[in-house]
Hints:
By secondary structure, the protein is α/β, with parallel strands linked by helices.
Amino acid sequence: xxxxxxxxxGTLSLPENLEKLLTDCTLCPRNCHVNRMAxxxxxxxxxxxxxxxxxxxxxxxEPCISGTAGSGAVFFGGCSMRCVFCQNHDIAAGxxxxxxxxxxxxxxxxxxxxxxxxxxxxxxxxxxxxLIVPALRAAKREGLRIPIVYNTSSYEKxxxxxxxxGLVDIYLPDLKYESAALSGLLSNAPDYxxxxxxxxxxxxxxxxxxxxAAPDGTQLFAPQMNDACEEADxxxxxxxxxxxxxxxxxxxxxEADSKRVLSYLLKTYGERIYISLMNxxxxxxxxxxxxxxxxxxxxxxxxxQRRLTEDEYEALIDFxxxxxxxxxxxxxxxxxxxxxxxxxxxxxx
Length: 349
Ligand code: SF4
């Protein structure tokens, strides 16, 4: 285990082994081999300095993550995935956000805990893992006690995730596509499915089966949690303390691929994970105007210009039920609104 040092000014400095990861960056499957410490940028559009666009209480995650107090979400700048329909385009394109030090990130974690956050929610953190690790370690030494959530596209290397072993309590990964053609077209990542599948296996290995806390502090595993939810009134709060929730954002017109994703997760993990089936896809004209014309096969993507229909979503829910889903979250139709995309205005940074 590496040590974290403070220089003469008291600033946290990066351990040498973590700094090395940024000087010839192969942190994610893009393998850019750029020297981010020297200011170069790769596919994620970020140098070796942390950039974040918002750190605030966030109420729109799954209920066991947000609770009523909110999740302490830190939105990082840049992204190694950069999907053409990105819902957080301003930050993914590196256009929003402000540079911060590792020391400041540690303070942000502690401030969010002070504000009553149920957890620290690291949103799109992959390309900053070597900088997040020392900030988390320092914050934990200074009293950070709430669970750490790692919220990712899953386009991750297992070796990068292993840097987080023992630091992250809850993984919140996407499984976006099964089809290589679709992931190639929409995310420039034809190797997405096998990469994400290996990443999710590592996440489950690290944190194990889901554990929740009832309002009286009782620990509940998944079957007890599902029974307790059925019996409790709807205001009773059960917060996740450990585990994996895999998200799948259903895309308009892509029902067959969504079914392949659900089948894979149900057959591979059964009740060892939760699945969050999301209907909140929101076409953002300013984003699609830039990206869709560049796609030669755009005829098959006309669905991206509309929202998911109720029938499309119901068909996926029915499919999940027919295939034995026990641990799952679904969304109300009203959640497909642009208002769920927060303002990336530097709040809390
Ligand atoms: S983290 Fe960024 S620079 Fe490093 S390999 Fe991935 S996309 Fe490239």
